[in-house]
Amino acid sequence: MFQKHNNVFFLQVGSNDGLTGDPIHNLIVENKNYAGIFIEPVVFCFDRLKENYQDTYKNESRLVFENVAIGLTACKKSFYYLSEDSRQELVGELPNTYDQLGSFDINHIINIINHFSDRVRPYIIEAIVDCLPLQSVLDKHHVEKIDLVHIDTEGFDFKVLSQIDFERYQPKLILYEHAHLSEDERSQAHILLKKYDYHLTEHQGDTLATLEL
């Protein structure tokens, strides 16, 4: 879909460390024509994110890093995640993706970790994070076009997706996680994307939306 000689602008919301299970990491590293914005609210994940891309962006300005959460309004809000040291202290009791469990809803975290170990709950951290509406971040960086969107926000995906100005940006490809959406939000996401002529393909817990040109 993206020709190698064309400039591609990406938006990634919920970047985590930019490496673990990341479907666009290799594209960004291997193609200097890719520029874009990473958004990650958890500080230790954000630090890893920048470290994992340091050789890529060291002498370039094509990559932007925002240590914020996308919210419905500009505010400060409680955000829940597992502590950085939980994996070492609970060896064998957490999946490798433990640090991808970040949410505004503590019950979402509790429901997931209950499948792994009863000892995990004390490792849940509550942090007050800065929240911005998606358009505020885009305006801050004078974004005029978006080609590729990747959203992985542990159940907040539709609320991020619905903030995209489709009339203005018309991203060619959108990948989001539907696994933690309610049936209603999953349906609303389909309706929204089909309204703007996207073809939808589901694979496991993700939905790929491709603009039909």
TrEMBL record:
Which GO-annotated molecular functions does the record name?
A: methyltransferase activity
Q: Which domain of life is it from?
A: Bacteria
**UniProt-listed GO biological process terms:** methylation
Q: Does the keyword Methyltransferase apply?
A: yes
On whether DNA repair is a keyword of this UniProt record, the answer is no
Query: InterPro entries given for it?
Result: FkbM_mtfrase, SAM-dependent_MTases_sf
Which parts of the chain span the membrane according to its record? Answer: none
Keyword list (alphabetical) reads: Methyltransferase, Transferase
Methyltransferase FkbM domain location is 13-192
Q: Which residues form the signal peptide?
A: none
Q: Specify the protein name.
A: Methyltransferase, FkbM family
What species was this sequence derived from?
Chamaesiphon minutus (strain ATCC 27169 / PCC 6605)
